[in-house]
């Protein structure tokens, strides 16, 4: 009987630990955003490969969503992945310098608001994005720019 009870307790504690998601500290969240920004920039370079897309998506949760109301609304992880690969194969990614430079970050509980800048047609643009986390992976990116 003790063995059964012990087995149930071990199983229960394993299930509870597996369902808990690690909360990252402010500095860890900001470091993860830097990693994602670097990976996003790498995809847009002229010699990028599908492996670059795979490297980015390895940092997303299975239920990841990308939200950009101005450019189509909400995209699932698979839809966004397919778009990246489609544009890559079409030769649309031709950059020779990184697109985004992080200017400011404000980290909260499992989220980071990020101001990124890009040069477009000789004009400097600022973009606001929010990265939401589940543990070390990104569960949602919401874009607030046109």
How is this structure best described in words?
There is one protein chain. The protein is α+β, with helices and mostly antiparallel strands and 146 residues long. 39% of the residues lie in helices and 34% in strands. The chain contains four helices and six strands. It has helices at 2-19, 26-43, 50-57, 77-89; strands at residues 60-68, 73-76, 101-108, 111-120, 123-134, 137-143. The chain has a six-stranded mixed sheet with strand order 2-1-6-5-4-3. A hairpin with a 2-residue loop joins strand 3 and strand 4 (111-120). Helix 2 (26-43) packs antiparallel against helix 3 (50-57) and helix 3 (50-57) runs antiparallel to helix 4 (77-89). It starts with a helix and ends with a strand. The model is unreliable at 4-19 (pLDDT under 50).
Helix vs. strand class: alpha+beta
Poorly predicted tracts of residues:
4-19
Number of helices: 4
Q: Kindly, what is the distance between the CA atoms of the first and last residues, rounded to a whole number of angstroms? A: 64 Å
Can you tell me the overall shape?
A: globular
From the alpha-carbon coordinates, what is the Rg to the nearest angstrom? 19 Å
* Main sheet: strand order: 2-1-6-5-4-3
Strand count, sense and closure of the main sheet? 6 strands, mixed
Q: Which H/E pattern describes the elements?
A: HHHEEHEEEE
Content of β-strand? 25-35%
**Overall pLDDT level:** 89
- Residue share in helix: 25-40%
Got a strand count?
Answer: 6
């Amino acid at each position: 009987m003790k063995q059964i009870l012990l087995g149930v307790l071990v199983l229960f504690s394993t299930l509870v630990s597996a369902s808990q998601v690690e909360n990252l500290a402010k500095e860890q969240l900001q470091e993860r955003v830097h990693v994602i920004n670097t990976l996003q920039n790498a995809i847009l370079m002229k010699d990028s490969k599908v492996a670059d897309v795979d490297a980015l998506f390895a940092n997303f949760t299975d239920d990841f969503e990308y939200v950009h109301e101005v450019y189509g609304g909400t995209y699932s992880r698979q839809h966004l992945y397919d778009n990246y690969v489609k544009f890559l194969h079409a030769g649309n990614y031709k950059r020779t310098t990184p697109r985004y430079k992080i200017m400011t970050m404000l980290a909260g509980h499992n989220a980071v608001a990020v101001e990124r800048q890009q040069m477009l047609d000789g004009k400097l643009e600022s973009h606001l994005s929010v990265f939401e986390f589940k543990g070390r992976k990104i569960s949602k990116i919401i874009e607030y720019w046109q």
